[in-house]
Amino acid sequence: MTQPSPAIVRRTNVLALHRLFLEQQIAAGKPAKGLDQAFAASLEISPSMWSQIKSSRPIGNTLARQIERHARVDTGWLDTEHAAEHPDPAEERFLALAREAWRAANAKGKRELRLWLAERVAPPADPAAPRDAEPSAAEN
Q1: pLDDT at residue 139 is higher than 50
Q2: Which of 5, 11, 22, 114 qualifies as a FRET site for 43, CA 20 to 30 Å off?
């Protein structure tokens, strides 16, 4: 599986920090309006800068360390993948849909689903390599 670029890892992680901030603020009874600005202020960046970061602006080293410091995470945290720790809602919806498709499929359907996904995450296979056999009992 290919590793995402450092820019994507940083953006994914800062969005996870943002989501955590929003969850905490809403749980504390704060109104949703203005929370993006509050998050930007907590990182000591402008709302405009935060908007650019959310959409496409790369996060340089200096800004990454500033975000980590203000978010109270370890130095280098933004540079390490944490997807398993903070799945986003779109990922959760995909996993629920995949789980539903898997559970509804027979053995052939499960094998096709698995192979379809494997083709998209793995480098192209050696055409001479044997294809997968039937799924194991654990996969049914």
Answers
A1: no
A2: 5
Alpha carbons 25 and 110: distance in angstroms, whole number: 41
List the one residue out of 16, 55, 5, 56 whose CA is nearest residue 39. Answer: 16
- The predicted pLDDT at position 127 comes to 56
Coil, helix or strand at residue 55: helix
Which tokens belong to 53? Answer: 């970061």
The counts of H helices and E strands in the chain are 6, 0
CA 95 to chain centre: 12
Q: Strand runs (DSSP E) across the chain, as ranges?
A: none
Segment 10-46, tens digit of pLDDT? 998 999 899 889 989 988 999 889 999 999 999 999 9
Cα 92–88–114 angle (5° rounding)?
45
Burial of 43 (0-12, 13-18, 19+ CB in 10 A): buried
